[in-house]
Every structure is written in structure tokens, then in C-alpha cells.
Amino acid sequence: MSSDSSKKRKPKVIRTDGGPQEGKRGKADGEQDARYYSEECEVDLRDPIKDYELYKETCQELQRLMAEIQELKSRGVKDNASEIDERRVQSCVHFMTLKKLNRLAHIRLKKGRDQTHEAKQKVDAYHLQLQNLLYEVMHLQKEITKCLEFKSKHEEIELVSLEEFYSEAPTEISRPDITLTEPHQQTLARLDWELEQRKRLAERYKECQTIKEKILKEIEVKKEYLSSLQPRLNSIMQASLPVQEYLFMPFDQAHKQYETARHLPPPLYVLFVQASAYGQACDKKLVVAIEGSVEEAKALYKPPEDSQDDESDSDMEEEQTTKRRRPTLGVQLDDKRKEMLKRHPLSVTIDLKCKDENVLHLTFYYLMNLNIMTVKTKVTTAAELTTAISAGDLLSPDSLLSCLYPGDHGKKTPNPANQFQFDKVGILTLSDYVTELGHPYVWVQKLGGLHFPKDQPQHTVTADNSLSASHMEMTMKLLRTRLQSRLALHKQFASLEHGVVPVSSECQHLFPTKIVSRLVKWTAIPFEDYAELPYTKDVVEAGLAEDTHLYYMALIERGTAKLQVAVVLNPGYSALPPIFSLCLNWKGERTGSNDDNIRAMESEVNVCYKELWGPKPGYQLLTNQLQRLCMVLDVYLETEPHDTTVEGPKEFPQEKMCLRLVRGPMRLKPFKFNYPQGFFSHR
Q1: Minimal CA–CA distance to 680: which of 520, 514, 546?
Q2: What whole-number distance in Å separates Cα of residue 460 and Cα of residue 452?
Q3: Rounded to whole angstroms, how far apart are CA atoms 101 and 52?
Q4: Does residue 360 contact residue 377 with C-beta atoms inside 8 Å?
């Protein structure tokens, strides 16, 4: 608004004639310059904060005057014209004040910019000086480094210490009166003493060489004697073979084994030595042997022979390469994968025999490029096993030794460096080749003395005898226990598939004499089917069901009631108990989520499993749990109240003796069997 009003307002022109007007104009310009410069001086004297307060007060006064003028004009009284003019004059005065404050603000701004510019110029000058100084410092440091890094030829010679020099060197060479005060003369004297010592050592070396030649001649004479002795010893060993067989002391066979063991790679050699030592000391039934081609093993360590006819055959090779087609990228990758997964020609076999003459055959291999060991398994039974469909995975090589130690499923390589090797040849995971190569369990690596720490990776992992010895005994016990438990399960599954729950005489006291409910179905199911069951979600979410576990489905019936049982069998059975999930189909679907008594039945087998272990080592735990489920199903059905709306007798008459039918607000049933009294009570 101020700019528009200034445009509309016409400037006043004072018309005068002659020169006096010019004098007046010059005088006015001088006064204006004086006022301008006086305002610059005034800026230094005035306080900006007070000017800001004056600015706010002036603006408030202008607002008040404008409001009063607006109010007077709105009244429309002619007598108010004088008052309006008076307020206009006051407003003009305030406008003049604002203009002056504006000029002062601009002057302050200009001075601040000038001061900032001067300070920046000073900083730039100082910075330039600093850069020059830093460059000079860097140049001097380089010169100092060159001087310090200067090496003389005598510095490469390792001289004796000063104490030895002054104590052993003669005074003609050491000259302590001069060398103690002058370092240069001291160094020259030490070099002279070094030369004198080396001359003496050269003479001593010649004497030792003559002595060495004499000893070598004596050794050659003794070698000739020993070489003539070898045929005699061989004839003695051949003559003693019948004696060795009669006394069960196969020294000749053991000698051949140890000769072959010299060609084993270090991990397999450590395994062979430690397993043989363990068998001799603790387990006479343990049989350790070496299989494979010794000639191929020897060829691995032979240096490639230099071809003498390279130049003559070069033309022929060029003609052949031109005729041959270049292999495709896929063929090259396949060759690289085969080379990456190449096994050593020799392997170590261990036969672990049990008391019942069942044998677990273990064959250990070594993958040379991956620096890991693998194992293949096979089971030989003393008697032919009864075929059971559900027992197919119990003795399979893929699952027999899975999770022998917790979490060791043998599907991934334990060596972290192998993943980078796989990426180069396009191998996604080692599990695709496990069937052909064997399983690289962690305990297999430890038996071979290999340890691959993940937190502190090492550049080269070497076989350690102490590591193998510390794990040998425990691993052999676990292997024997695993074989016995799987064979026991195999026999039990054959009975379960025919609807018979085998209970040994030692465990008869755990159950009543009459159990009406019976097992009608026992089948194996995959993990995916188990996870889709609605009453197994709690087990899956709790992490108690994994791919390495075995899964089974059982069906127990009594009358119209059908109890579906989903079983998770841990590979570490029977040290780790199976987990049961129940679903009763009788007058609706009843599970642990909608029926407290079904949850109590699950706890009878899942929580109170220690009562059902039976005689050690507890291989009858699974069948005892199934028998208890049949028992508690009888109690559940017999203690259900009779439906009065249905005519006729009760479907499940009470045959079990119970002290109390239900107890507590959850109306729990008495599932605990008390022996020898024969009644059921609450826990």
C-alpha cells in the first residue's frame, strides 16, 4: 500500500529562476548526505533491542490510530473531520518513525555483511597459510622417513650382543678404549669379530663334513645287513601264521592294516587310530578296517611326470583340439561339481556289534576338496525282521543316525568355507548329494579330529587326536543305543500294525487286568499331514515338531467312541519321550482345547511318562503310553453321566472302581491307576 500511495502522490516542484535555486539544491544535497552519514554513526550508538521495542510500540499506535479513524468515519459526523486530521498527522509521524527504523535496520545489515566478509577473508588467508605449513610438514616427514628407512649392508648381519663382544673378543679387535666412546669404531670392531668367528666356523664345518662321510659309510654297511635280514623275517612270519591263527593274534593282518593306514588322509587316519585303540581297550566287538584302492591313494601324492615329448606332440594336440567341440557351460559345471565332491579312494569301516549279534556298519569317507568327512550306514540283523509298513523310516540310512547329538541332522556341511566353494560351481546345498556321498554329521568330524568353529573361523583346520579321543567313547555308546532302540521300535511297530499293544511282564502292574478299548490302526504320516491337524497346532508352534522327527497316527476305539492319536517320535527316543495329541470323536469332536479331561489324558502320557519307562533303557515307553491311553479312554467313557433322553441301557457301563467320579470346578476324572489296590483316583 505504501508503494501504491507513493506512485499516486505527485512530487512537489518548486519553480525558481536563476542561479540561487541551484545553490539551494546543492545545499539540500549536502544536508541529506550529512543526515545519511549521521544515521550511520547513530546506528553504533543506538541499541537494536530498544529499536525493536520502539518498532512494536509504533505498530501498536498505528493500529490504534487506524482503528479510531475507522470508527470516526463510520459515525459519519462532520464535526469529526478535525479529529480525523489530527490522527492522520499522528499516523504520519509514526510512519516517519518506521521509515527511520527501516533505514537503521538496513544499515545494520550492511555493516554485518561487511564485517562477515572481512572475517571470511581473514579465515581464508589463515587457511591458506595452514595448508602451506601442512605441505611443508609433509615434505619434511617424507625426508625424515627416507633417512630413517636407510639400511646399510651390515644391518642385515645378526651380530652378537655387546656384552658377549667385549667378554669374548680379544682386546686387539675390541679396543674398548676407543669403541666405547665412538659408535662407528664400535660397529667396525664388531664386524671384524664377526668375520673372525665365521672363519673359525668354516673350519669346524669342514671337520664335521669329514665325520659325516664316515658315519654315512657305516650306515650303508648296516643297511646292507638289514636288507639281507628282511627275507629271513618274512619267512619267519609265514611260518608263524598257523600259530597266530591258533592263538587269535593276527599280527600279520594288523601289520598290513597299519601299512595301508599310512596312505589315509589325516582325518581318516586319526579316526582309524582312535577307533582301533578304543576297540582294543574298551570294546572287543568293535571291528575297524580300511577299504579302497591303495594304488589310487598313492597316485594322489605322486608329482606329475614331466612329458619329454611336449614339443613333438604339440602339433598333434592342436589338430585334435580343432576337431573336438568345446564343452558347453553345463558340462563344465558338472565336471567342476564332480571334482569338488571327489572322495578319497580309501575309506574306514567300523562294525559296531550289539549283544544280540545285530551289527551297525559305518563307512567313513573323506571329501578332499571340502575337507569334511561323511558316513554311510547299514544295519545287519541276526534274525530276519518282521516287515512293518510304518517302520520303513526307522532303519533307513537317512534317518537312522539323524540328531544323534541335538540339532545334528547331517544335511548341511559343518565347514563354513564350503558355501563359498559351492557358489563357484553352482551347488545350492550339500543335502542334494547326501544320498551319494553320505551324511556330514558334526560328530563324524569330531571323530576325525576336525573342528570348525563358527565364531572364530580358522584358515586351515587340521585333524586333532585329542578331539577324536574325547568324543569316541560317548559316540560309540550313543550309536549302540540308537541301534537297539530302533530295532526295539521295529518289533513293536509290527505288533501295533496288527492291533496288538505289547506290554512286558515287568510293566503289567501299571495297568488293570481288563482294558476294553483297543488299538485298531497304526500308520506313519508325513510332517505336512501332522502339521495340518487342528489339534496339533500347539505342539508345532512350541517347536516340538521338526522335519527330522518321525510322525505316526493311531486310532483307538471302544464302541462308537473313536480316539485319534497323533504321535511325534523324537530321533533320540527313548531318552526323549514321544508327544501325544488327542482328538475324541464321540458325541462331537473333543480335543484339549475344548475338553479339560482330554487335556488331562494328554498329560497322563506326556507329563507322567517317567512312570511308564519300565526297565532300563526304557525301550517300552511308547507301547506303555499307548496302553495307558486305552486305559484312560475306558475311564473317560465309563465315568460320563448317562444321557436320560436316550432310552435303553448306558452305552459304556462302569467297570472300573473309582473313589470319586469327578473333582474340582473342571470336573476332572480319576485317571491314575493305583496298584495293587486296583482302583482309580485323582492326581
Answers
A1: 514
A2: 10
A3: 9
A4: yes
In this structure, are strands 679-681 and 672-674 parallel, antiparallel, or unpaired?
A: antiparallel
The Cα angle at residue 551 between residues 546 and 552, in degrees rounded to 5:
165
Largest CA distance in the chain: 158
Are the C-beta atoms of residues 274 and 468 closer than 8 Å to each other? yes
**From CA 582, how far away is CA 538, in angstroms rounded?**
12
* Cα–Cα distance, 266 to 268 (Å, whole number): 6
Q: Return phi, psi of residue 344, to 5°.
A: -70, 145
- Give the DSSP letter string of 553-612: EEEEEETTEEEEEEEEE-TTTTTS--EEEEEEESSSEEETTT-HHHHHHHHHHHTSGGGG
With beta carbons less than 8 A apart as the criterion, state whether 410 and 439 touch.
yes
- pLDDT lower than 50: segments of the chain: 1-27, 30, 34-36, 306-312, 321-323
At 250 the three-state DSSP class reads coil
565-594 burial: b if 16+ Cβ within 10 Å, else e: bbbbbbbbbbeebbbbbbbbebeeebbbee
Tell me which residue has cell 616427514: 141
DSSP H or E segment with residue 445: helix 442-447
Question: What distance in Å separates the CA atoms of residue 265 and residue 626, rounded to the nearest whole number?
Answer: 49
- pLDDT score, position 431: 86
